[in-house]
Amino acid sequence: MSRRVVDIDLNRVEGDLQFQLELDGNTVADARCIGTLYRGFEQIMIGRQPKDSLVVTPRICGICGTAHLYSAVLALEQIGAIPVPPNATRIRNLCLMAETVQSDLRQSFLFFTADFCHSRYAKHPLYSQAVEAFQPFQGWAHRGTLEHSRHMVKIVALFGGQWPHSSYMLPGGVTTPPTARRIVDCQALLRPLTRWFENQVIGGDLDRWLALASAEDLFRWLEDEKPAAGAVGLMTLLARSLGLHRQAPGTPHMLSYGVGCDPEHWQPPYTENRHLWRSGFLDGERGEVEGFDHRQIAEHVRYSWFLPYAGGRHPWQGQTVPDYQPHSDRYTWSKAPRYRDQVVQTGPLAELLIDGEPLITALYREEGGSTWLRQFARLRRTGLFLARMRDTLRELAAGLGQAHYLPPPDARLPDGEGYGLVAAARGALGHWVRVADGVISQYQVVTPTAWNASPKDTAGRHGHWEQSLLGIEVQNPDDPLEIGHIIRSHDPCLVCTVHVLGKDRRLSLRP
Amino acid sequence: MPAARHVICFGNALHGDDGFGPYIYQRLQQLDWPDDVRLFDAGVSGLDALGWLDGCREAILVDALANQGNPGTVHVFQPEPVDRLDNDLSGHAAGIPYLLQAAAAVYGTLPDIVVVGAEIDRIIPFAPGLSPAVAQAAEHALSIIRDRVMFQPS
């Protein structure tokens, strides 16, 4: 059978990611995930003052700048062994959760569920319900998400002055105290979104939904009319009726750096696992969660457009020298990070499984990973975060007089090495920094998308997204809807360049 | 009806003529404006620009336009009604049409919208600075915006 190549641009809100699939008949025989943009932040940082990272690195991403800021400040605090007061950690966690909730809701109901309105499903018994809910700009879930998600990051603005690209975390804490007024303002932003999430997204009380602990619980919950008609219920029923719970698991190995620093226990030397949701590596073959050790991370460039080096390198020994080689077998500006020499995935599914969240763990044990479970886990995390944000605001309200910033004993950061690891919306994000002679001499950023969308490594093993597509059957190669479901369930993270404007015709403006 | 008028400039100053919007913003900032006029540098924001379409009766969107053969030509037009824009069912389209559809869905109605754009010569990645044709167009666009705001206060 002949092979053909299909290019899929993922220029959704932003740009710069492309999938190239080779079809053998109608089956995906090979997949290449192509990062088309070289960023260069690692070079930008060299020679700068350490604290410049707090201003420069949040600009890496217009969606998850809070996560980059959090990583950057943790790395500096580790280098200086600088203590942080619990309220600062609470505010950092609160802001990161707000950013993640916005991203997760948009990914789910602006992007993932829109594919259920495709005309191919017109005869599906839930089609009219799908269109009523998910049709772009008209469906109630799409419109509700547009409305509610945009307010969430105002919580970041209350503490950081702006979102995105804010710089309100600094070694020793945050710049703004949690006044009663700010807490009330945050609650006024959180409550309507939580009410909407309960009424429209899960179709019931948040705490009751969070108490579901088994597959049986979930399916019993979905037997009721209101939950079944809610956005998560509808997404679940549609996805499962299309078999999306039985396909595209990708790699079985999972990685989480831990979610949320534990405010009461987050203290120097910052090398222990003191997180609200624990960190770890889930060995997909043995089915066991093991402790996380950052020294087990190595990045490969065998299939990337970077100056070649042999094997993999830990980020502290990392090298990011662009070397565009368009006529070779190299195909991306992304590196291939590996953990303990394994291809891993990261993101909400990994975070919840590694922490042992009961419902996701039960579903995973029964059915394994899938397009649907990835998506469901993301919305499960949204529910968990909404509850945690509510609790965090209560904790802040109970300790208003406590410090939000402890001036570091020595204003100048010592030379040394440090890393800052957080759970960004798309998963494990790390900054590795070395300071020498008072300035940054090495900076390596390993993003969640580098893990998930990685190209092949030195051993020729595909990255997680690539793996998830191999062997998938496509009904119509000119309209590969099946691929769309899978790729969007991975939550592609893209950076801004694409942008279109219409006059009497549609105009394409940017390269 | 809110009283404010917004001038929202889109584009990336790092990429040659795509910096048309940001350049206009910089120049507009140096002028005096009536109290009801607010200027915004939207950069390359997508949905994050939603808030700027709220709370105003008129929005002037400033942006670079694709080269249709007459680089440096300034076009002033009202966008098509949002329900007539290419309806990308998937919702994965980007840019101002998407933004306007989202704004209509969220706010119910849109302010009066006028686009002031210049056909670009070319986009050179990571080469700041406008081509001569577009730099000249910027002067023209500036006077159009200024006249529109100062002499059509309605």
Fold and architecture overview:
The complex is a heterodimer of chains A (511) and B (154). Chain A is of the alpha+beta class. Helix content of chain A is 39%, strand content 17%. In chain A, the strands form seven sheets. In chain A, strands 1-2-3 form a three-stranded antiparallel β-sheet. In chain A, strands 6-9-10 form a three-stranded antiparallel β-sheet, covered by helices on one side. Chain A is globular. Residues 9-15 and 495-511 of chain A have low confidence and may be disordered. With 154 residues, chain B is an alpha/beta fold. Chain B has one domain: Rossmann fold (3-Layer(aba) Sandwich). Chain B is 27% helix and 21% strand. Chain B has helices at 20-29, 96-107, 132-151; strands at residues 5-10, 37-43, 58-65, 74-77, 112-119. Chain B has a five-stranded mixed β-sheet with strand order 2-1-3-5-4, covered by helices on one side. In chain B, strand 1, helix 1 and strand 2 form a beta-alpha-beta unit. In chain B, helix 1 (20-29) packs across helix 3. The longest helix of chain B is centred in the last third of the chain and has 20 residues, at 132-151. The two termini of chain B are 12 Å apart. The interface between A and B is large, with 41 and 45 residues.
